[in-house]
């Protein structure tokens, strides 16, 4: 049964929800207007009464902060077949404060009610993309993996991890759906739970090697039971050339992953002829830590909370032209603000 769209205030008053397992909005609910702010629905009633609901307008979107633009693909899915033209930056492009990142031309009634949704798409995604890009820059060409799914609501985890790859520049993501949406395969080793249940890191490594498909990397956690350098050597001796990397995820209670720890593990692996074994680091990483650990010899960085907890780039939508006449509220410039970097998408 087709979901009834929210068009006017009476539709909101009559909306009845069925019991649900999860509290997140599904795709149909977003398209039907269930996640918009109520004042945009009331505006439709007011403009319909005034005969101005479908007046042609131009709306511009900007952020007060700089960042990396993302979220456009969802905006385009929302506005497709609604009779509007959309100009925007490409996903992954950096933007400046107050720069117009998106412009929409069309009847106000076709898209005005979705202002909340459009800004939400862009604000959250641009925040995640900006944080991911900061980490990628700090790594200076070394791989950065997004491990942030556990830090956000599962309904948006795939969005975040896809954005981290497509717009932020990360080379991989652990969330299955997020990676697949980005056209990639999910990446990640095994958790401490596996090592704890097996009861021995080397035994775990051998079992992992035996069950893993040939093309999958053999990367083993080495901070569960013994000193990280000791466990790295024990695992390397067991798997030899099969071992692609060791992962250091030392908890804060033990001092976390430090540059000195990375240097020691790298030194000891090299001394025994295991220079091919990469060092993967994770656990509370941010751009500053990535730089320090990279200089110490870390090869791959798994970043979770820094990307997941990124501050959204607050987005604002202003009407700048109404029925062909330049206009704006006080403090803003009326009329279109040209930005040659915008490309037409719809």
Protein described:
- The protein is α/β, with parallel strands linked by helices and 346 residues long.
- Helices cover 38% and strands 16% of the residues.
- The chain has 14 helices and 14 strands.
- The strands form three sheets. The chain has a six-stranded antiparallel beta sheet. The chain has a six-stranded parallel beta sheet with strand order 7-6-11-10-9-8. Strands 2-4 form a two-stranded antiparallel ribbon.
- Strand 8, helix 11 and strand 9 form a beta-alpha-beta unit.
- The radius of gyration is 25 Å and the shape is elongated.
- The model has no long low-confidence stretch (mean pLDDT 96).
Q: For the report, how would you describe the main beta sheet?
A: 6 strands, antiparallel
Helix-strand category: alpha/beta
- The rough form would be described as elongated
The total count of strands amounts to 14
**Unreliable runs, pLDDT <50, ≥5 residues?**
none
Distance between the termini: 29 Å
Q: How much helix, percentage-wise, in residues?
A: 25-40%
Strand-and-helix sequence, N→C?
A: HHHEEHEEEHHEHEHHHEHEHEHEHEEE
Q: Output the radius of gyration.
A: 25 Å
Number of helices: 14
Spatial order of the strands forming the largest sheet: 13-12-1-5-3-14
Beta-strand content bin: 15-25%
Global mean pLDDT:
96
Quaternary arrangement of the chains shown?
A: single chain
